[in-house]
Each structure stands twice: as structure tokens, then as C-alpha cells.
Design a protein that fits this description.
heterotrimer, A alpha/beta, B alpha/beta, C alpha/beta, A: alpha/beta, Rossmann fold, 2 domains, globular, B: alpha/beta, Pyruvate-ferredoxin Oxidoreductase, domain 3, 7 strands, about 25% strand
């Protein structure tokens, strides 16, 4: 398979990868720092390239409900936004999860709460991995750390969304969204015209009608449905955990990170190793499902772990739950759009774990 | 080989596009590249900067605190980044509007009066290419041919008629850059 | 049910004066006696059947009394979040332009929480039909004030009557959407008498026809009653509707295509 080399921003890579993945529809609303996704799509006229529908909706709320409608027809549909806009989409996401519909949602996170800042942050972790809207549900969450992964995870995201009939989120931030790197793009995939039995495409004569709904007024039936969702999430935990490890084999100390922070940590590992400190890094690629087992294993071989994330300390809670007190777990993060430097990571590792 | 560069100046000086052309040129030379702009309100006037990394290896952090080379186009940026250059590193600055000149003695300092030059050539739009020419002269990592190729890649087709003017500016920059003795 | 009560054995086909549409399911309607929803459902089913559109139709139902429309219509349906039916329908129609798509929304859904989605879908001229049931009250949640509740009208959240200074004025969405360039056919009808039912069905037929020609958004308001919410008998509620609702929400076409 010949892949095309391009130099692109992360946001542009998502848009181009969506067209090439055979996406049927994108529905979005402008917000910094992700507007390039919608802008790129409009510029590219995907309607002419593949027949893909691109629509600027009147709000994030409308956009996610358009995604619901498109997904209900069995189409590959997506939306993207940044933190305040993703908050607005939570109701729709809950309905999509409740109706068991596949879709892709991109969150290019900015610092919060409220209108916050437009600079990069990772402070939407809880919202992304714990459900986000009302009711017992989960999103499958992918955390790209490069422009290449921004592109690759679009196709992977659609694949997983349809495999589990569940919304998938790409959780990234302004660093990966705005930066340019080399990216190898897959060739154009054809848009699928397959009719899925659960999708509303018009009731064929003689067969059962299809209803897309999240409503069930009978509590006993609703509980059975809730259990079905939980079984689905357990299956994701068995089959879909993805991580990347750097120098963990002989590590005394482990950095746990994801996305852009993990890039910074990679550099920190190099700096620490140059100083003679045996530091390793586990980069989480799936945030839900969370790599509980692998962290539990690593807890047996390291002296301590430091979660590095651009938040007040969110992912660190899941790290703590995974290692169950076997080793000390601390947190280092910057907030408000401040990006930690590799040097700061090392300084904090020294004061919080090694010296502490 | 890894070259870590910061380019900083006013919004509208072509800081981001200079970085973009460098990144494209790096791709032409089969290098790993990253281009990380400061974004946000700074895009709308005020200061703008971009970190460009060119490397033979996989690039870890696209955001760094110390640079091999700083290309500085206004006083605020000089004040902000002079101390972030690695010892033994390189500083290239445009003297236009500078009241406090570089003071470090452990780096090599070059001055390029690109703004004056571009104005006298009546080509103020290619100011950034004069600066880039200066960089190519003192840090011959990117080849001129590849930069011209990079220009073609980063400029939309409708601007390709401007490429000869940009090439001329690159050559002029290579001629007028000069080292400043720091003593 | 015993064999002897089987309707087929009781009614001779030749004597059949009226037949339930094949597009209606066997499920018992969940609406209160005298409510206009059931009639509106039936008319939509009939129009789909007559147009041979059952395999091409996708309906979008909202939150409120009409949420269970999918239990009574034998077609593919999507249930939308409160107010979002026009957004859902926008994507359905754009991704499957060859289908007949409609939304069926109450006044709280369409004229309060879904105002933005409704106006923007109409303004873009999305090629689907919006059926708007206006009974001036939130029926399912127990008779609260709606955006269309009349001045002075009582509800559980305007127990002393709607005071327009304190609570704002009723919103005439149908007149509003008629002003937008994207709407093609906008009309206000009712289903409380046989004559009114015939007119509404005619309007629905026209809307289906325009939809197939991709002319823009069609919008049919049906002024209706809510005997339970209004705390009246079915007959009283129809009389009250004629006396109070129709003067404020006059029936008839508001925007018709130039012939």
C-alpha cells in the first residue's frame, strides 16, 4: 500500500485522513484551536472528491445531533470541537452511547474551566474517560502523540466505533493539533454502501422496522441493557488496550503520560538517562480502556511512578487505582495552557519521588 | 544531527511561513521535522514565534526550552529568547528597531539588516526570505535547492510567480549577513 | 381474544367503510382520549401508504408525548434528544437524499428548547417535512406552560394565567419560519373535525410531493388540544380550542409556492 508523504498540521491531518477513510459526513462548529479541521474540509470540497457531506452547524449541540442522525443511518460520521464545545456535546454523546451508535468525536483540548484559555491542556481527561454525560456509559478514548497518529487514529477510530457500536473520541490538544510534522497518508478508501441491519434506511417490505432510541420505560429491560453496555466495555478492556513503552525494561522510575505530554516525557527520559537515572516511560494510547494490568505489572519492578499530564491531576487517579498502593504514585502537571518542559519533568521526578 | 531553532518576531513578519519553508526543506532532505507555532491571540498582531526542529532521528518533544539557533526579529523577542540559546549556539538578529543589542559572549552572534535591505529592494514582502538566506549561509544544514523546492510546496500555486523574487532575496540574505564580535 | 371476536370474521370486506392504514402498527395508542395526536399519526401513516413510501421513509420523533410515535407507525424511526429533531433529520436527509424524511415535534420541543435547530434547518432549506403539534402546553410532564401558551391561559406553571409581562409572549413559530428563504410550504391546520382532517391530509400530501422535488423545508403546524393538560373533556377542549386558540393561531396557508 503506497502511502503519501505530506507535511501537515495535526488538525489538517485529521481532516484529510477523514476524507481518505471514506467518512460519510462531518458536522462541526468553529472553535479555537481546532477550526482548521472544518476549514480544511471546506477547502478540499470532499463532496466532489468522495461524496462526503460537510456541514457547518448552528451550534455544537446541533452538530452532535447531526452525528446522531447520520450514525443512526449506519454512516461513518464525525464531529470535532474543543473543550467548551465538547461540554455542549455531552448530552448528544450520552444519547449516541445509549442508542449504541458508532461515531468519531475529536476534542482538541484547551485549558478550562469555563471559557478558560485557548492554549493546550489535558484537563478534559475525566470528562473523556468517565463518560462525560449522564448515565452509565463510556467512550473509547484514543490519545495521539504525533501528527501521524492524528491521521491513523481517524481510521482506527471508525473501525473501533463500528466494531463496538460505540462513540470513539480522539483526545488531543493544541500542541498536536497546531504543530506540523511528516505524515504518511493512506490511499483513498471507498465510502461503504453497506446496509447495516440496525440502521434506519427505510423499512423494507416484509421485514421489521428499525428504531434508533435510547428510551426504555421498563426498568427491568433498561437494567438488562445497562448490563449489555458494561459487558461491551469489559470486552474493550480485554481487547483494545494500547500503550507504547520507552526504556521500561530496566527502569527504576516510571513516567506515565499520554499525548503531547508524553512527547515531552520522551525527551525527559533521554535527559535523565544522560544523568545516569534509570527512568522509563509508558505512553498511554488508549485512555479508556486504561492499561490497568500493565501498570500493575510495572509496579512490581519500579520504585515509583510519576503521572505527567497538563491538568491538576486526573489521569493520576487511574494510575493509583491500577497499582493499588504497591509503589508511590505522584503527579506533576502544569495548567492553564502552560506546557511543562522536559527539564521540569526531571526536576519534579527528583524532588517528588527520587529524593522524596 | 539535530538542529533546534526558534524564530520570533512580530505577527505579519512571516515568522511562521519562514519556519514552514524550513520544515518543508527538511522533508526534502529526508529529515524528521517538527514545526510548533505559538498560536492564539498572538496570531492577530503582537509577537509570533515558531519552534522548528530538524533531525536525523525521531523527534521527541516539539516544545523545548533551549535552542541551537535563535532567529530574532524584534526587541521583545531578543529580550525573551537571548538567554534560551545553548552555550556555543547561534543568534541571528535583524538590527531594525533594536535598542539593546545582544550581550552574550558564549554564543555566535550574526546581524542581518534584512528589513532595510528588503525595503531598499522594494520587496518588503520577501523580508523573511532575506533572513532565511542569512541563516542558510551561517548554518548550512538545509540546501538552497531544497529551500526553493520547499517554497514551491508551501506557497499556493497562485503565488508561484513570486518564487524568483524570493530566490533573489535568499541570495541577498546570504551576502549581507555578518558576524558581530562579542567583546 | 376469542376466535368469535376476530375482526376479519365479523366484518365483510364489502361492507368495510374505513380501514386502518397498513403503516400503523397493532400497538394501542398511548394518548389520552380525545387527543389530536392519534389523528395526526394516522394521517401521516395514510399519506406514507398512499405515496408508497414506507420503505423510503425515516421519521424523527422528539421528547414529549410524541416520543412513542415509533410504537404506532410501522416505519424506520429515530428518537431525537429534546429539541434536536431538525438537526438529526438534517443529517439523515443529507446522507440519504433519496429518502422521505420528516420530524414530528410538539410545541415545547420545537418552539422552546429546539428553537435554534428549527430556525436554522428551515433557513438552510433542508429538504424534510416538519410536523408541529401545537397544543399550547407541555402534555407529558403534566401541563406546564409552553412557549405557545396563550396570554391569560392557565397551566401548572402559570396557575394564575400567563402574565405576558412576567412570562413573555406566546411564540408564533409558524409565522416566523414562513419568513425564512429556506421554507417552501408553510401552513397551519387542525384535526378536530372531519373537514379539518381532510384539509390537513391534503396539506401533508402536498408536503410529501414538494419533498420529493427537493423544494426546501415544508412546515405544517397542527393546532391541537390537550384535554388532560387543559383539564377539560374532549368536547370541551375542542370548543375551547376553536374559541381561544384559532383567533391567536389562525388556520390556513401562510406560505404557498407560486403556481
Amino acid at each position: 500500500m503506497k502511502r503519501e508523504l505530506r507535511l501537515m498540521k495535526g488538525n489538517e491531518a485529521i481532516a484529510e485522513a477523514a476524507i481518505r477513510a471514506g467518512c460519510d459526513g462531518y458536522f462541526g462548529y468553529p472553535i479555537t484551536p481546532q477550526s482548521e479541521i472544518l476549514e480544511y474540509l471546506m477547502e478540499e470540497k470532499p463532496h466532489e472528491r468522495t461524496g462526503m457531506v460537510v456541514l457547518q452547524a448552528e451550534s455544537e449541540v446541533a452538530a452532535i445531533n447531526m452525528v446522531y442522525g447520520g450514525a443512526g443511518c449506519g454512516k461513518k460520521v464525525m464531529t470535532s470541537s474543543s473543550s467548551p464545545g465538547i461540554s455542549l456535546k455531552q448530552e448528544g454523546l450520552s444519547y449516541i452511547a445509549g442508542a449504541e451508535l458508532p461515531c468519531l468525536v475529536v476534542n482538541i483540548v484547551r485549558g478550562g474551566p469555563g471559557l478558560g484559555t485557548i492554549q493546550p491542556a489535558q484537563s478534559d481527561y475525566f470528562q473523556a474517560v468517565k463518560g462525560g454525560g449522564h448515565g452509565d456509559y463510556k467512550l473509547l478514548v484514543l490519545a495521539p502523540a504525533s501528527v501521524q497518529e492524528m491521521a491513523d487514529f481517524v481510521e482506527l477510530g471508525f473501525e473501533l466505533a463500528f466494531k463496538y457500536r460505540n462513540p470513539v473520541m480522539i483526545l488531543s490538544d493544541g500542541i498536536i493539533g497546531q504543530m506540523m510534522e511528516k505524515v504518511y497518508l493512506n490511499p483513498q478508501k471507498e465510502r461503504s454502501s453497506e446496509n447495516l441491519e440496525w440502521a434506519t434506511t427505510g423499512k423494507p417490505a416484509g421485514s421489521e422496522r428499525t428504531i434508533i432510541t435510547s428510551l426504555e420505560l421498563d426498568s427491568a429491560k433498561q437494567e438488562v441493557f445497562n448490563q449489555k453496555l458494561i459487558d461491551k466495555y469489559r470486552e474493550m478492556e480485554r481487547s483494545e488496550v494500547r500503550v507504547e513503552e520507552f526504556q521500561t525494561e530496566d527502569a527504576d522510575y516510571l513516567l506515565v503520560s499520554y499525548g503531547s505530554s508524553a512527547r515531552i516525557c520522551q525527551r525527559a527520559v533521554d535527559l535523565a538517562r544522560a544523568e545516569g537515572l534509570k527512568v522509563g516511560l509508558i505512553r498511554l494510547i488508549t485512555l479508556f480502556p486504561f492499561p490497568k494490568k500493565r501498570l500493575e505489572e510495572l509496579a512490581g519492578s519500579v520504585k515509583g511512578m510519576m503521572a505527567v499530564e497538563m491538568s491538576a491531576g486526573q489521569m493520576v487517579e487511574d494510575v493509583m487505582l491500577s497499582v493499588c498502593g504497591k509503589v508511590p504514585v505522584v503527579h506533576f502537571g502544569r495548567m492553564g495552557g502552560i506546557i511543562p518542559t522536559p527539564e521540569e519533568v526531571i526536576e519534579n521526578l527528583k524532588t517528588k519521588i527520587i529524593g522524596g | 544531527m539535530t538542529e533546534e531553532i526558534i524564530i520570533a518576531g512580530f505577527g505579519g513578519q512571516g515568522v511562521l511561513s519562514m519556519g514552514k519553508i524550513m520544515a518543508y526543506s527538511g522533508v526534502m532532505q529526508d529529515m524528521e521535522v517538527s514545526w510548533m507555532p505559538s498560536y492564539g491571540p498572538e496570531m492577530r498582531g503582537g509577537t509570533a514565534n515558531v519552534i522548528v526542529i530538524l533531525s536525523e532521528n525521531r523527534i521527541s518533544s516539539p516544545i523545548i526550552r533551549e535552542f541551537d539557533t535563535a532567529i530574532i526579529l524584534n526587541q521583545q523577542s531578543l529580550d525573551k529568547f537571548e538567554n534560551d540559546i545553548k552555550p556555543g549556539g547561534t543568534l541571528i538578529y535583524d538590527g531594525n528597531g533594536i535598542t539593546r543589542h545582544p550581550e552574550r559572549k558564549d554564543i555566535t552572534v550574526y546581524r542581518i539588516d534584512a528589513m532595510d535591505e528588503a525595503t531598499s529592494m522594494e520587496m518588503s514582502k520577501v523580508f523573511n526570505m532575506v533572513v532565511l538566506g542569512g541563516y542558510l549561509k551561517v548554518k548550512p544544514i538545509l540546501k538552497l535547492d531544497n529551500v526553493v523546492e520547499g517554497l514551491k510546496k508551501s506557497l499556493p500555486e497562485r503565488y508561484h510567480k513570486l518564487i524568483p523574487a524570493n530566490e533573489k532575496a535568499l541570495h541577498r540574505g546570504m551576502e549581507i549577513i555578518s558576524e558581530v564580535e562579542q567583546n | 381474544m376469542s376466535e368469535s371476536f376476530d375482526k376479519k370474521s365479523m366484518i365483510d370486506e364489502a361492507n368495510l367503510a374505513y380501514k386502518k392504514s397498513e403503516v400503523m402498527t397493532e400497538n394501542v395508542l398511548s394518548y389520552c382520549p380525545g387527543c389530536g395526536h392519534g389523528t395526526a399519526h394516522r394521517l401521516i401513516a395514510e399519506v406514507i401508504e398512499e405515496g408508497d413510501l414506507q420503505d423510503k421513509t425515516i421519521g424523527v420523533c422528539p421528547v414529549g408525548c410524541s416520543v412513542l410515535m415509533y410504537n404506532s407507525l410501522d416505519i424506520d424511526m429515530q428518537q431525537a434528544a429534546h429539541g434536536r429533531a431538525p438537526a438529526v433529520a438534517t443529517a439523515v436527509k443529507r446522507l440519504m437524499p433519496e429518502k422521505f424524511v420528516f420530524t414530528y415535534q410538539g410545541d415545547g420541543d420545537l418552539a422552546a428548547i429546539g428553537t435554534a435547530e428549527t430556525l436554522h434547518a428551515c433557513n438552510r432549506g433542508e429538504n424534510f417535512l416538519i410536523v408541529f403539534i401545537n397544543n399550547a402546553i407541555y402534555g407529558m410532564t403534566g401541563g406546564q406552560m409552553a412557549p405557545t401558551t396563550l396570554p391569560g391561559m392557565r397551566s401548572s406553571t402559570s396557575p394564575h394565567g400567563r402574565d405576558t409581562i412576567l412570562m413573555g409572549n406566546p411564540l408564533k413559530m409558524t409565522e416566523l419560519v414562513a419568513k425564512l428563504p429556506g421554507t417552501y410550504f408553510v401552513t397551519r391546520q387542525s384535526v378536530h373535525t372531519p373537514a379539518a382532517v381532510r384539509k390537513t391530509k391534503k396539506a401533508l400530501r402536498k408536503a410529501v410531493e414538494y419533498q420529493q422535488q427537493s423544494k426546501g423545508t415544508c412546515f405544517i403546524e397542527i393546532v391541537s388540544n390537550c384535554p388532560s393538560g387543559w383539564k377539560m373533556t374532549a368536547l370541551q377542549s375542542n370548543e375551547w380550542m376553536e374559541e381561544n386558540m384559532f383567533p391567536f393561531y389562525p388556520l390556513g396557508d401562510i406560505k404557498v409556492p407560486e403556481e
